[in-house]
UniProtKB/TrEMBL annotation:
Pfam families hit by this protein: FtsK_SpoIIIE
Residue intervals passing through the bilayer: 22-44, 56-73
Gene3D superfamilies: P-loop containing nucleotide triphosphate hydrolases
Binding residues for ATP: G245, A246, T247, G248, A249, G250, K251, G252
FtsK domain residues: 229-409
PANTHER family membership: DNA TRANSLOCASE FTSK, SPORULATION PROTEIN RELATED
GO molecular function: ATP binding; DNA binding
UniProt name for this protein: S-DNA-T family DNA segregation ATPase FtsK/SpoIIIE
Keywords: ATP-binding, Membrane, Nucleotide-binding, Transmembrane, Transmembrane helix
Length: 474
């Protein structure tokens, strides 16, 4: 019984007495046999998974061990020596095939064990990609590591409910966490992403002009190299291409590489190269390659664009109800209109009527021209909307070095920079960054880092000597 206190606070004291009842949870111990079976199953599953993913590395360890048990240690030691001698000879006689079948596979196994799996848990936690729910830690699953000659590609299964955007936002965290210079995140199959960690930059040095194709090429032309070292082919037939970059970013490399790749087709009469060069500096050096289809004066440029519109309309009338796509022929060649600095003909044009003519012709060609075999390849320095209002009419876009991060999305579309298109971080030093850019195609939203080959003045003069006048109408 409670003693009455002065001031009659008994009621207050009673209200403070704890009244909840605490129940101890019932803990059901797991039988030892169940724990042992679960541990054995997990170990067996781990062995099967390792053998499935890395058969070469597992055989390299299992075969000598088996021989030692069956035939003694001398035989077990002799076999690895013989295998290593054979692999060494293979490495020096056929390095490409050795790298493909052995070297890259062994490297993938090594970096999986020593780099990615070893640091996976702390990197996921610190970068915020792991989740803690109800006192339990959930980690994205590391599926597979594949090595190319220039990069490590890590396949990851995301947590349920996780988005690829969360990984793209933490690309810098992942790069620093695994001690790699860069990380690019691409979306794989549903629920999975692929992390690409470059080991070296094959685009860090200029690429010499590529050989002129030995046969006529129309659909896609060789331009340069991708960041994985593979050749890059730029699609021209059936699309329009916008190349945007600051001064000295290397727009000329893209234009001249496209011209160089199309020269055999132009000589065969399957392609016509038209050039609009209002700056009179870039395309004028090889103007003989374009013949009468070269224009520098703004009025002549407008006339040339309107002539292309006339050809487009004539083809559309002939194709109506007959064919849906253009097939390059001598009678109906593929027309490629190159514009070195399109802003000189649009935003910076003081003659209002001339500006309206140019914009109307460009808009007509970019909306209707590709189905009948006319493509516009335009270079632009300032990607703002007021400079080129029709930039969204170009299905394929290339962002070279840009001045501001916001300009990347202006050129390549919303979210391109978050997907790894860091065009604003390309070096301004010509030997390092000129011609380097990110390509975003209409059919693929993922940007691809590419460097166009550098076509020198000597290369252009050689092209003029060999091909000037060969594409004239007969």
């Amino acid at each position: 019984m409670l003693r009455k206190l002065p001031g009659d606070h008994t009621r207050d004291l009673v209200s403070t007495v704890p009244t909840q009842v605490v129940f101890r949870p019932v803990v059901v111990p797991t039988p030892a046999i169940v724990t042992i079976l679960v541990a054995l199953f997990r170990a067996l599953a781990g062995v099967v998974r390792t053998v499935w993913r890395h058969p070469v590395a597992c055989l390299a360890a299992a075969v000598p061990a088996g021989l030692c048990l069956l035939y003694g240690w001398r035989t077990g030691l002799l076999t690895p020596v013989a295998v290593l001698s054979g692999l060494t000879g293979w490495r020096f006689t056929h390095p490409a095939s050795f790298s493909r079948w052995v070297g890259l596979r062994l490297r993938a196994w090594w970096v999986l064990v020593w780099v990615y799996r070893r640091h996976w848990q702390p990197v996921m936690v610190v970068s915020g990609l792991a989740k803690h729910i109800g006192g339990r830690e959930y980690l994205p699953r590391l599926l597979k590591v594949t090595c190319t000659p220039t990069a490590d590609m890590v396949a990851v299964k995301m947590l349920a409910g996780q988005s690829a955007d969360a990984w793209q936002e933490r690309a810098d965290n992942l790069a620093h966490g695994f001690a790699r210079p860069q990380c690019r995140v691409t979306v794989g199959s549903p629920g999975r992403v692929v992390l690409t960690f470059p080991r070296r930059d094959v685009l860090a040095t200029p690429i010499p002009a590529l050989p002129i194709p030995s046969v006529p090429v129309v659909a896609s032309v060789p331009i340069g190299l991708r960041e994985d070292g593979a050749p890059y082919l730029l699609k021209l037939h059936g699309t329009h291409v916008l190349v945007a970059g600051a001064t000295g970013a290397g727009k000329g490399s893209w234009l001249w590489s496209a011209v160089r790749g199309l020269l055999p087709a132009a000589a065969a009469g399957l392609v016509e190269l038209w050039a609009l060069d209002p700056k009179r500096m870039e395309l004028s050096y090889g103007r003989s390659l374009f013949g009468p289809r070269y224009a520098a004066d703004p009025a002549d440029c407008a006339d040339l664009l309107e002539a292309a519109v006339t050809i487009m309309q004539g083809r559309a009338d002939r194709y109506a109800g007959v064919q849906r796509t253009h097939v390059p022929t001598v009678d109906d060649p593929f027309v490629v209109v190159l514009v070195d600095e399109v802003a000189f003909l649009t935003a910076y044009q003081t003659d209002r009527k001339l500006k309206e003519r140019t914009l109307a012709a460009l808009a007509t060609l970019t909306t209707q021209g590709r189905a009948v075999g006319i493509a516009i390849v335009a270079a632009l320095q300032d990607p703002r909307k007021e400079v080129l209002s029709i930039r969204n009419l170009f299905p394929d876009k290339i962002a070279l070095r840009l001045d501001e991060p916001s300009q990347v999305d202006l050129v390549l579309g919303d979210g391109a920079r978050d997907r790894g298109a860091l065009a604003d971080q390309i070096s301004s030093y010509p030997q390092v960054g000129a011609g380097v850019g990110y390509v975003r195609l209409e059919a693929d939203p993922e940007p691809v880092r590419v460097r166009a080959a550098y076509v020198t003045d000597t290369d252009i003069l050689a092209m003029v000597r060999c091909y000037a006048g060969t594409g004239e109408a007969r």
